[in-house]
């Protein structure tokens, strides 16, 4: 059981007088639940949300009254209604809608699953996913979160960060290893990110899950900033690293260029300052003239 620091309740609001601490606490209670801890007691929630038991109880009972939480004995769990909060956000994400037909083409061409994510804090969050029809597949779905540093899409977001933002990312705490291949050393990861920034795409070889390989490319907004990332992933028994860097990359680059254009990108503009824009677009343009795509 996690002990609660009673002083946590006496901490001042983190921002000015307009900050509503009650809203912050409500979200912290909801976020206390996870796939690994779907049922929690009042004491569990208090510890995870850094609240006293009395405050945690009031918020849980309020959320229960609103239909976001259900109770069985001493255990509380979230209801499907909390999905409304996420899907309201997803409905505003035009990239997910625009990208879907191109993602379906990727899956049809490569017979592997295709996903799109955005960065949220230190994690990537899946906002769109088209799965290949296979007997065995991963548990990833829209809303799934993974640590950015050990995913191909996450490396793209980190590589696109300013040096100041990247420094703050590393200063926030140690990086968690998902597998023995996860890159958790700052110096080593920084070197990888330089390479990602120069070439404009990233890969993951068993760093988030044993035996899983993925390749990711960025989706740009009209200012050529990385708005989202798209990947294709499959088991190492089916995909070699040569496959990833060859046909898989070609298919993904062509799709990402089409999606970026649909989102308002004009690749002919001269403001390609960084993140491998020239390489990304020149290769994608050459692919569009090939008859095998």
Give a verbal description of the structure.
There is one protein chain. Strands 5-4-3-8-7-6 form a six-stranded antiparallel beta sheet, sandwiched between helices. It folds into two domains: 6-79, Arc Repressor Mutant, subunit A (Orthogonal Bundle); 93-287, 2-Layer Sandwich (Beta-Lactamase). The model is unreliable at 1-12 and 287-293 (pLDDT under 50). Helix 2 (42-49) packs across helix 3 (53-66). Helices cover 42% and strands 17% of the residues. The protein contains ten helices and eight strands. By secondary structure, it is α+β, with helices and mostly antiparallel strands. Strand 7 and strand 8 form a beta hairpin. It has helices spanning 21-31, 42-49, 53-66, 83-90, 94-110, 152-159, 163-171, 186-199, 241-262, 277-287; strands spanning 69-72, 75-78, 113-120, 123-130, 145-147, 202-205, 212-220, 226-235.
**Number of DSSP strand runs:** 8
Separation, N- and C-terminal Cα atoms: 56 Å
Number of separate structural domains: 2
**The CATH superfamily title of the largest domain:** GAF domain
Just name the CATH architecture of the largest domain. 2-Layer Sandwich
Number of helices: 10
Helix and strand pattern: HHHEEHHEEEHHHEEEHH
Low-confidence stretches: 1-12, 287-293
Q: Strand arrangement, largest sheet?
A: 5-4-3-8-7-6
**Biggest sheet features:** 6 strands, antiparallel
Average per-residue pLDDT, rounded, comes to 82
**CATH fold field value of the largest domain:** Beta-Lactamase
**Structure class:** alpha+beta
Q: What helical percentage do the residues reach?
A: 40-55%
Strand content: 15-25%
**Name of the CATH class of the largest domain:** Alpha Beta
């Amino acid at each position: 059981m996690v002990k609660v620091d009673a002083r946590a309740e006496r901490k001042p609001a983190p921002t000015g007088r307009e900050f509503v601490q009650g809203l912050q606490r409500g979200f912290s209670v909801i976020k206390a639940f996870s796939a690994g801890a779907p049922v929690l007691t009042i004491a569990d929630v208090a510890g995870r949300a850094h609240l006293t038991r009395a405050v945690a109880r009031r918020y849980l009972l309020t959320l229960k009254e609103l239909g976001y939480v259900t109770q069985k004995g001493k255990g509380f769990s979230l209801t499907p209604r909390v999905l409304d909060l996420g899907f309201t956000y997803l409905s505003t994400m035009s990239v997910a809608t625009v990208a879907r037909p191109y993602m379906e083409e990727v899956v049809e061409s490569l017979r592997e699953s295709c996903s799109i994510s955005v960065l949220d804090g230190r994690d990537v969050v899946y906002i769109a996913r088209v799965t290949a029809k296979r007997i065995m597949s991963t548990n990833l779905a829209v809303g799934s979160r993974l640590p950015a540093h050990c995913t191909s899409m996450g490396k793209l977001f980190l590589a696109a960060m300013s040096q100041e933002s990247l420094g703050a990312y590393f200063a926030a705490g140690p990086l968690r290893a998902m597998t023995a291949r996860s890159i958790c050393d700052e110096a080593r990861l920084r070197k990888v990110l330089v390479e990602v920034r120069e070439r404009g795409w990233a890969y993951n070889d068993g760093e988030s899950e044993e035996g899983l390989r993925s390749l990711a490319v960025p989706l740009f907004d009209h200012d050529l900033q990385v708005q989202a990332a798209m990947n294709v992933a499959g088991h190492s028994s089916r995909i070699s690293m040569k496959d990833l860097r060859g046909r898989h990359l070609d298919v993904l680059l062509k799709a990402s260029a089409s999606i970026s254009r649909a989102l308002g990108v004009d690749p002919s503009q001269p403001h390609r300052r960084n993140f491998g824009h020239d390489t990304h677009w020149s290769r994608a343009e050459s692919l569009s003239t090939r008859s095998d795509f």
